[in-house]
Amino acid sequence: MSEKELGKKLDRCLADSAVKLGAGLGLGIVFSVVFFKRHTWPVAFGLGMGLGMAYTNCQNDLRAPYLIQRNIKMAS
Amino acid sequence: MAGKILPVLKLATKVTIAGGALYVAYDSGLLGGSEQGSKVIGKAKAAFPPAVDEWVKYFGFELPAFPKIGFAPVEAWNSGVHSSISALSSGPTAVGDYTNQGLQYLKDLAK
């Protein structure tokens, strides 16, 4: 893939990782407070889930060999 | 009777809160693919200043104006990487040149 495309993918990866980590942290805190008597482990679990989701998304994004490239202009 | 209902009610409230948080996270695309995640960040950035303004009006005090930073780290990162690597790659040559210049200077002094 071209350098520009790679740059965009990496940017998307970073943004998505931040979102997923934040969501995991938030949900971990909610579950920890509501169900698990404010223990720390649900927060760590949520962070881990978020990290895992971000990693998988990045991996799928960077390894997309079967998607049709959409930068072909349609003849109008 | 009331003693039996209360724990069930507590559990139901907890499940509602946790389930609601999970649903909100799912619905706003926080748990989706890469593109959705980056769109969410864009939406949050766009929604942040009006939300801050509303809260300020509600509480009735003036926040100091946020200083406009004219430097965007995101845009400077690429040029930073580029300059660092060019400096590293031309490092040995530059060191050699400076050494030669220094030696020449010392030779001239010794003459």
TrEMBL record, chain A:
Signal peptide: none annotated. Component of the mitochondrial contact site and cristae organizing system (MICOS) complex. The chain crosses the membrane at residues 18-36. Component of the MICOS complex, a large protein complex of the mitochondrial inner membrane that plays crucial roles in the maintenance of crista junctions, inner membrane architecture, and formation of contact sites to the outer membrane. Belongs to the MICOS complex subunit Mic10 family. The lineage of its organism: Eukaryota, Metazoa, Chordata, Craniata, Vertebrata. It is a single-pass membrane protein. GO terms for cellular component: MICOS complex. This is MICOS complex subunit MIC10. It is found in: Mitochondrion inner membrane. It comes from Oncorhynchus kisutch (Coho salmon). It holds the Pfam family DUF543. PANTHER family: MICOS COMPLEX SUBUNIT MIC10. Keywords: Membrane, Mitochondrion, Mitochondrion inner membrane, Transmembrane, Transmembrane helix. The keyword Ligase does not apply.
Automatic annotation (TrEMBL), chain B:
The keyword Cytoplasm does not apply. It holds the Pfam family QIL1. GO terms for cellular component: MICOS complex; mitochondrial crista junction. Keywords: Membrane, Mitochondrion, Mitochondrion inner membrane, Transmembrane, Transmembrane helix. It is found in: Mitochondrion inner membrane. InterPro entries: Mic13 (IPR026769). One of its GO terms (biological process) is cristae formation. It is a single-pass membrane protein. Its main location: mitochondrion. It comes from the Eukaryota. Component of the MICOS complex, a large protein complex of the mitochondrial inner membrane that plays crucial roles in the maintenance of crista junctions, inner membrane architecture, and formation of contact sites to the outer membrane. Belongs to the MICOS complex subunit Mic13 family. Component of the mitochondrial contact site and cristae organizing system (MICOS) complex. This is MICOS complex subunit MIC13. It comes from Oncorhynchus kisutch. The gene is LOC109901549.
